[in-house]
Amino acid sequence: MIINKINLNLAQEIVNAVKEVVDKNINFIDINGIIIGSTDKSRLNTFHQ
Predict the structure, then answer these.
(1) Quick check: 17 and 10 in contact, CB under 8 A?
(2) Torsion, Cα of 35, 36, 39, 43 (10° steps)
(3) Residue 6: closest CA among 37, 48, 33
(4) Which residues contact 25 (CB under 8 A, 6 or more apart)?
(5) How far is CA 26 from the centre of its chain?
(6) Whole-prediction pTM value?
(7) Can you give the residue ranges of every domain in the chain?
(8) Beta strands in the chain, from DSSP E residues, in sequence order
(9) For 23, left (φ over 0), alpha (ψ -120 to 50), or beta?
(10) How many CB atoms lie within 10 A of CB 5?
(11) Nearest Cα to 6, choosing from 47, 35, 43?
(12) What are the pLDDT digits (tens) for 1-49?
């Protein structure tokens, strides 16, 4: 799966780029439900509910 190849830096770059286009907070969540990239820094490394 491609998700296994996305590191934390790339996940953060993706959410930052998407936020510029949609002007909304964005989260990137791994297969375990952990937020590995977010425009809301308080959500990083937390479980997405």
Answers:
(1) no
(2) 40
(3) 37
(4) 19, 38, 39, 40
(5) 7
(6) 0.84
(7) 2-43
(8) 27-29, 35-38
(9) left
(10) 7
(11) 35
(12) 555 678 999 999 999 999 999 999 999 999 899 999 999 999 999 999 8
